[in-house]
């Protein structure tokens, strides 16, 4: 699933985070320096994001659900930073993720075309629990070894490398990969 991200400087680029929890954490903003990227201001924003995310389903959420998603997003963010820095997540962040992961599951159904889908619009509690369960899978071993921070100079976007050789370097070839190529080209021709 590839998201289209809109940077405050006007750049628009495609980003495949590789996991639902990373789509939320690195595609919707956050606290501190990430606040300028915030897109989840009200429950309707969360519902739009849910439909565009790997969940791919409509949801009906409340202000309390939005607060839970933001709390979970922060725990996933700090746990991911710890893991990509070679450490272990803080106990409080792990407890937050695990607590939300114990929430209600979306109900799977077979749709008229024979495909597997989820019943009805998702509730906020189902959305939060599904994101948390994805974080458990993503931040647990051995998957965590495939978490990488973009090698673009000042980027910081983190993704789950699902490529077969596990050598993905950039959040997006369209953005950071292209910047690197342009920089390398200029260096070669200036020498």
Describe the structure.
The model has no long low-confidence stretch (mean pLDDT 89). The protein is globular, with a radius of gyration of 18 Å. The protein is built from six helices and eight strands. α1 (20-27) packs across α5. It is 45% helix and 13% strand. The chain has one domain (3-190): Jann2411-like fold (Orthogonal Bundle), CATH 1.10.3300. It starts with a strand and ends with a helix.
Write a short abstract of this structure.
This protein has 191 residues and is α+β, with helices and mostly antiparallel strands. The protein has six helices and eight strands, in the order ββααβααβββαββα. The protein has one domain (3-190): Jann2411-like domain (Jann2411-like fold, Orthogonal Bundle), CATH 1.10.3300.10.
Secondary-structure topology with pairs:
Layout: E1 3-6, E2 12-15, H1 20-27, H2 43-52, E3 59-60, H3 63-84, H4 91-101, E4 108-110, E5 116-118, E6 122-123, H5 124-139, E7 147-149, E8 158-160, H6 173-190
Parallel strand pairs: 3-6
Antiparallel strand pairs: 1-2, 4-5, 7-8
Helix pairs in contact: 1-3, 1-5, 3-4, 3-5, 4-5
Class derived from helix and strand content: alpha+beta
What is the CATH domain class? Mainly Alpha
What's the mean pLDDT score?
89
Q: What is the share of helical residues?
A: 40-55%
């Amino acid at each position: 699933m590839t998201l289209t991200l809109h940077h405050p400087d006007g750049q628009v680029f495609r980003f495949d985070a590789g996991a639902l929890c990373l789509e939320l954490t690195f595609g919707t903003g956050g606290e501190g320096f990430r606040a300028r990227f915030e897109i989840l201001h009200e429950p309707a924003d969360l519902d739009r994001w849910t439909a565009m995310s790997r969940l791919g389903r409509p949801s009906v959420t409340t202000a309390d659900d939005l607060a839970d998603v933001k709390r979970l997003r922060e725990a996933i963010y700090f746990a991911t930073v710890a893991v990509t820095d070679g450490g272990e997540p803080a106990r409080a962040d792990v407890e937050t993720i695990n607590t939300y992961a114990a929430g209600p599951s979306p109900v799977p159904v077979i749709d008229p075309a024979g495909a597997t889908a989820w019943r009805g619009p998702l509730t906020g509690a189902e959305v939060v629990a599904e994101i948390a369960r994805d974080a458990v899978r993503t931040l647990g071993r051995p998957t965590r070894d495939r978490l990488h921070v973009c090698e673009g100079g000042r980027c910081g976007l983190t993704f789950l490398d699902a490529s077969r050789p596990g050598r993905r370097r950039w959040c997006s070839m369209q953005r950071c990969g292209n910047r690197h190529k342009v920089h390398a080209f200029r260096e070669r021709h200036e020498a």
